[in-house]
Amino acid sequence: MKNFIIAGFLILGLLCPVFAVDKTELPSETGIVESIQYEDVDGLQQGDNSVKQVALVKVLSGKYKGTERLIDNMLTGNPAYDINLNKGDKVILHAERKSDEIIDADDVDFFIADIKRDSALLWISALFVLLLLAIGRKKGVYSLLSIIATVALIFFMLMPMILSGFCPIASAVLVGILSTVITIYLVGGFNSKSSSAIIGTSMSLIFAGGLSLLTIYFAHLTGFAGEESMFLYSAHPELDFQGLLSASMIIAALGALMDTGVSIASAINEIYETDSSLSVRQLFKSGMNIGKDVIGTMSNTLILVYLGSALPLVLLSSNIDLQKFFNLNQVATEISSAVIGSIAILLCVPLTALISAYLIKNQKQNIEFDFDNKE
Q1: For residue 130, what are the CA distances in angstroms to 95, 126, 164, 186, 229?
Q2: Order of strands across the sheet that contains 29-39
Q3: CA angle, corner 58, sides to 57 and 62, nearest 5?
Q4: Less packed terminus of the chain by CB within 10 Å, N or C?
Q5: Which InterPro entries does the entry link to (predicted)?
Q6: Sign of CA dihedral 226, 128, 374, 278
């Protein structure tokens, strides 16, 4: 087990490129709001509802730790963009140099970038990890390692590949398959059950990639379904945004596909362990019967995930003609993502059932290495 984990992280290390840091850009710092004053904004042409907060902020990190700055914070009345500060709030400070050469603190301007939220994120993440380890035990450890590996693949492999000009769809499929292999072998061990789930999931993932490409073409989806796409376009206009949309559909469906593949393969394996006299056809039929139950819940789960993330968009339908609503680019994108993921799950069931029935029935009588049954 130890050798496998070390080898896995060595592979990830070889895949991780070294990110070039822009040395001309100053690092962000943390600050705390010590006091706030409100000033009149007449004549600033910021709108009738605008208010200016003048915040006294103490820098808590970095080279200028301990210094205090008066920073203007405009409130325009738009909650999507306003940062409403209160005394005691911790904030992220964006630093900008006034000149090419920094001699002292007066040569640097600070601006409030946003509220500091990572502390809350760390607490909720720590709770998740503790529950995962307490309930899952060894399986929880392997699940945690697989999560770390998947996140590392996305940030250190998928992201650099796309930014370097590689095809987003091919990159997403490759990362999805690697994540599937690492996750299922870590959690399920090296055996026919895990191999069947990996093959079934990978084939379904490739199908989802092809189907998303066709859907984007025939539905004339642009890939610009949110503000983040516009921000990315301003920074990297050379990227293939339709390809990025397809890649996002592939990655979004990956978790549900792995869950479906493992459920079918594990069920067939348990059936075979109970009655090894069953034929491939009988095992396949049993897998399909189980798959019919899995299909309903997993497809429903995927649809609900997309509906939940797009709830403001759903509520918007009450104010728009339905024909116009369903033909909005953003709405069509969300529907396409949910349906493509559900179709991939439907395909994953018979594929995994057939592969599992064949591999598990015809597996060689050798010792299979399983992390939970190592002898």
Answers
A1: 36, 6, 37, 19, 35
A2: 68-75, 51-59, 29-39, 90-97, 108-115
A3: 125
A4: C
A5: YibE_F (IPR012507)
A6: negative
Q: Using an 8 Å Cβ cutoff, are 233 and 241 in contact?
A: yes
Give the contacts of 248 (CB within 8 A, at least 6 positions apart): 172, 337
- Say how far apart CA 263 and CA 88 lie, in whole Å: 49
Cα gap 67→113, rounded to integer Å: 18
pLDDT digits (tens, 9 = 90+) for 350-370: 999 999 999 988 874 443 444
Alpha helices per DSSP H over the chain = 2-15, 118-153, 159-163, 168-188, 192-218, 227-235, 241-274, 280-309, 311-316, 322-326, 329-361
CA 329 – CA 124 distance, rounded (Å): 34
- The two tokens of residue 288 are 């399909």
Summarised one tens digit per residue, pLDDT across range 214-267 is 999 999 998 887 778 888 888 888 999 999 999 998 998 898 899 999 999 999
Question: Using an 8 Å Cβ cutoff, are 111 and 98 in contact?
Answer: no
